[in-house]
Design brief:
This protein is of the alpha+beta class and 167 residues long. It has a single domain, classed as H-NOX domain, CATH 3.90.1520. The protein is built from four helices and four strands; from the N terminus they run ααββααββ. Strands 1-2-4-3 form a four-stranded antiparallel beta sheet, with helices on one face. A hairpin with an 8-residue loop joins strand 3 and strand 4. The N and C termini lie far apart (64 Å).
């Protein structure tokens, strides 16, 4: 079949927009599945499923972000990775600082906390430090560690992530 007429080109879509759409689809699928998982596996079982899913998602998307943004495997690169990841998914009000032995990433207005976790009184800081961010940072190398000296679920005004390297 021959198609005639003026060809219509699709609009350009930024990588940030694509990443945001992927993440929103992931969150929506988790939001849909979690009540069923809680019903059958209990809260602890659901937490295990959520942690495993966010770990796999962060690792896969982290690899793409590292490649697309040409992020180096050092502490400054870790901050760049967190900046891209969190600016797309969680916040517009964030900043980072680099010390000699550690990198600090600060989120002041996390959309996920405000819309998803705070209303359900869920400790999202556990997901950030035990699942999502460690696996995101592993895309730069196995020796990155993350801890959270301040978190909104623990009553702080912001979330602070401290990134270090083993060794």
């Amino acid at each position: 079949m021959e198609i005639t007429g003026r060809r219509i080109e699709p609009p350009e879509v930024s990588d940030d927009y694509k990443y945001r759409r992927i993440y929103l689809a992931f969150l929506k699928s988790m939001e849909t599945m979690m009540p069923v998982i809680v019903k059958h596996e209990g809260v602890e079982g659901a937490k295990k499923v959520y942690f495993a899913a966010t770990a796999n998602f962060a690792r896969a998307l982290g690899q793409k972000i590292v490649k697309d943004y040409k992020i180096p495997p050092d502490l400054e690169g870790a901050l760049r990775l967190l900046e891209v990841y969190n600016r797309i998914f969680a916040s517009e009000k964030l900043y980072s600082a680099l010390d000699r032995d550690a990198a600090y990433h600060v989120i002041e207005d996390c959309t996920l906390w405000e819309k998803m976790f705070q209303p359900t009184k869920t400790r999202c800081d556990e997901s950030c430090t035990q699942s999502e961010l460690p696996h995101l940072l592993k895309t730069l190398g196995p020796d990155f560690q993350v801890e959270m000296p301040e978190s909104r679920p623990a009553g702080a005004e912001r979330c602070v992530f401290k990134i270090t390297r083993k060794g």
